Amino acid sequence: MVSTAEIERRYATVREAMDEHGVDAVVVCGTEYTGFEGAVTYLSGFVIVHRYAYVLLPREGEPSIVFPAEARYVGEHGTSWIAEQVFAERPGEWLAERLAGKRVGVYGLDYVLTVRDFAALSDKVDTVPFDVEFDLSRAVKSHEELDSVRDSVRINTQGFHLFAEAYAAGKSAAEVLAPAEEYFVAEGCGRLTMNMVLVGAEFAIARSDTKLGEFCIPSLEIAGPGGHWVEVSRALGAPNEEVSRMVEAYEEYFEAARSALRPGATAHDAHRAVSKGFTDRGYHLGHVTGHSIGMTMIEHPKIGEGVDTELEENMVFSMHPHAIADNGTDCLYMQDTWLVTPDGGEPLAGLPMKVY
What we know:
Layout: H1 4-21, E1 25-31, H2 38-44, E2 52-58, E3 64-68, E4 84-88, H3 91-99, E5 103-107, H4 115-124, E6 126-129, H5 131-137, H6 143-166, H7 173-186, E7 196-199, E8 202-205, E9 215-219, E10 221-223, E11 229-231, E12 236-237, H8 241-260, H9 267-280, E13 284-285, E14 290-292, E15 299-303, E16 316-319, E17 322-324, E18 331-333, E19 336-341, E20 344-347
Parallel strand pairs: 1-5, 3-4, 5-6
Antiparallel strand pairs: 1-2, 2-3, 7-8, 7-9, 9-12, 10-11, 13-17, 14-15, 14-16, 16-19, 17-18, 19-20
Helix pairs in contact: 3-4, 6-7, 8-9
């Protein structure tokens, strides 16, 4: 359950962003695609099961949540704290009538908003992208949110231990992941799990026909009952000589992050500090070094080159430098969820940085 004070805090921070960027309202778009439903949950408490939904938050007045009428069941509708729940034949047309003549920030304009709804909105509404602005408004987590984050980390960390216990060379990826996934669902994650393995340097769904070798890199990502995503994992088995050099760089990153993830540092500064051990050894970095994480799996700011956003206390980041050798096959990818504290970065899982 989310407290009334927390709901009001979330709306207030988004409305501050509206004022700062000169928009009259924000429409937050969510879809059943894993990881993209969280923004709707953040503003409404509603969890999408299928189709899509929009939350309209005006600068003044009460919010609305809008669903497509062709699916009367889009999720657990009683979970939303928003009173006005609208089933519209064309959600975009309903929003266009409500917002005609206004300048509206849209979270999900490029990736989530359906074509038919964009067409209806663009006839009457001045729509502007609002992904970065919305994410930055929710990047600093409240104490209530941090309780949810820590609970997700607890679940994810135990899931890693279950994965590690089940792992052995020659087993299938599905067989090894199954005990962890069973635990995740039992702890209340529901559909909010996105657990894979790396095959070579690429992510792959854990299938029964994928056989694990003497070295295994799991990618474990879940959101607990509170809806906050986290990422915690370690590599397993016997790394070769090339990957062992990457492990040395990972140890250096882990220590560097403790001081680099501090209030006042920029995301660019943090990226340079944690990636130095990899670049000094000549490794390419694949997936982003890190990113803010919350009720959407990947949020702004990213920890990356040229990102000048200043870090603040109680921001939460997923960190996972993706080191790739010149042969395009040898790689290393281990995940941690970090909290920015006044004294620097705190890895919440408490796992040592090593290959298990």
